[in-house]
Amino acid sequence: MKALYNEAQLELRTPEGMEFTLPLAGPVSRLLALWVDMAVVMAAGMVVQKLVAVVAAFSADAAGGLGTLLYFVVTMLYSILAEWLWQGQTLGKRLLGIRVMDRDGLPIHVSQIVVRNLLRPVDMLPAFYLVGGLVALGTRHGQRVGDLAANTVVVRTRQLEPPDWRKLLTGKFNSMLEHPHLAARLRQRVAPELAGVALDALVRRDQLDDAARVELFRELAVAFKKLVEFPAEAVEALSDEQYVRNTVEILYRGR
Amino acid sequence: MHRFLESARPVWKELERGLDHLENDPDPQWDLARTEAFYRLYQQTSAHLAEVRHLTAERELRGYLEQLVARSYSRIYVRGTERSRGRWWQWFTAAFPAAVRRHARALALSVGLFLVGCAFGAVALKIDPSAKAALLPFGHGQKTPTERVKREMTDKGKNISQARGRFSAQLMTHNTRVAFFTLGLGMTFGLGTIVLLFYNGVIMGAIAVDYIADGQLVFLLGWILPHGSVEIPAILLAGQAGLVLVHALIGWGNRMPRRLRLRAVLPDLVTMAGGVAVLMVWAGIIESFFSQYHEPVIPYALKIGFGVVEMAALTLFLTRGGANESTL
Are the beta carbons of B148 and B222 closer than 8 angstroms? Predict the structure, then answer.
């Protein structure tokens, strides 16, 4: 089944010219984080009620005033303080592994935190965050109104573990390199344009949908196989994509 | 690939250690040599990422390096802090009025919209007195000003004396919410902010005409001025902040990208919102503990005089506050 929401990414370029991407938080994780935060505020409200009950023993009026003020402070300041102290995260965002960041990939400033939270009531219009939800779904980086004003985005913070080095160093054995004379012939026969297309296909493989990727690598593998035939034991277990990957390694790294 | 991985891995490990340190302690007091070493690791890893992109389609490795570069970038290119922490008094007395003055045209527009609303409310009630119930909320349309004055004079503030604290808190929180909402509605390209400023003006104009026509001008001034001389300007300042947001959003005569325009006004918006909240707290206290008491409990002259002094002080504060200090 095709997903209704396509995972979006924030593309950034450092002053050194390096491009990288940050995965943006999806609407479901943001909604779940919001529910957790609402539960936190409700729990804090109950604590306020208990506190007020103690004060009410001395003065009902003071207790009423204190309760109103404290509840207001909790609802207004919870997200602001949490995002300030935890660098863009509330309890809900921490649990869901998401974080508010500057639109330029930098940590957020206090002014951004305050503005995105001050504008929350606008996002909540007319009810259940309808405005904020629709605006977030309609903008490229999933920004609600508060995010647009504050130049912020919500990104996923899941830290990737380092790759399995042993696999990288040993598991990607290129069986075609076992036949250096055929590899040399391949280098001679492959036109630079075809080599470029193959390299490009590998670099951009994640941007292709599944069917297009399978078809593209099948066509490229067929084209390479026509130029040089490797022994069956060297290539029989290779998928079309791995065949192209090995070929590109021969073409670009074997010189 | 073997040689590349063997030579690059120590760099990545070292960068990762530095990042873990920075993320646990955002202000680590590193010396210059340590900072430069960290920056070199970042540059090297960036170069490795570029190399990996061209040499291999290895997804896992690329993701790992992108993440390292992203984390390092966010630590290296941190923008300077906007102002020192802990200078709340200076922020309120200097930065707030300075921010208000920096956007004087937005304030003038805010005042103008409010006054247009006042005029509309006044004229509407003058032309069609039967519209009173529709124009005036909070039960003001249900009775005449004279009836209210009589009731207040006999009641002598007893109706509120048991609930002043609660009433004051409700006023503070409600008015602050309305003010922030007025600001936030700037994101509707000003439509919401304009409507709220106009609507507040309509209420004010209609109340004024209603009381004046009923011969209760002195009562009106004694009732409104003590808290209104702060609360109404606070709403106007919230409207001003909303219009500043509109200006940044639309960007008349400003060729900067929208997000840079918005970024430029954020500190002022926060300062104005904070200042408005302080004014609303003051207005809430005054409205509950002072404005609701009328003659014979508190003479009108004292209430009016207090309101006038407040208005003068606020004007002086906003026009002169922080004038001799550099931007905080």
Answer: no
CB atoms within 10 A of CB B277: 17
Indicate the domain borders of chain B. 2-76, 88-320
Q: What's the pLDDT tens digit per position in A130-177?
A: 999 999 999 999 999 999 999 999 999 866 677 666 655 555 667 787
Q: Which residues of B touch A21 (CB under 8 A)?
A: 66, 70
Q: Do B78 and A64 touch (CB under 8 A)?
A: no
Contacts of B263 in chain A (CB under 8 A): 151
The whole-number mean pLDDT for each consecutive block of 10 residues of chain B, a chain of 328 residues, reads: 78 92 81 91 91 69 87 82 66 94 97 98 93 78 83 76 84 95 96 96 95 94 96 98 96 88 95 96 92 87 96 96 64
List beta partners, residue A98: A156
Say whether A68 and B173 touch across the interface (CB within 8 A): yes
Which of A156, A174, A197 delimits the end of a domain?
A: A156
Residues B192, A121 contacting (CB under 8 angstroms): no
Chain A residues whose beta carbon lies within 8 Å of the beta carbon of residue B43 = 16
- B166·A65 Cβ contact <8 A: yes
| Chain B from 60 to 79: CB within 8 A of any A CB | 60-61, 63-64, 66-67, 69-70, 73-74, 77-79
Within a domain: A171: yes
The domain in which residue A43 lies consists of 9-156
Question: Do the domain assignments include residue A1?
Answer: no
Same domain, residue pair A108 and A216: no
Say whether B270 and A111 touch across the interface (CB within 8 A): yes
pLDDT digits (tens, 9 = 90+) for A193-229: 898 899 888 888 878 888 888 899 999 999 999 999 9
- C-alpha radius of gyration, chain A, whole number: 28
Residue A50 lies in a domain: yes
Structure tokens at A182: 């055929």
Interface confidence, given as ipTM, is 0.89
Q: For residue A103, list chain B residues with Cβ-Cβ distance below 8 A.
A: 259
CA dist list (Å): A236 to A219, A228, A229, A233, A239: 17, 15, 12, 6, 8
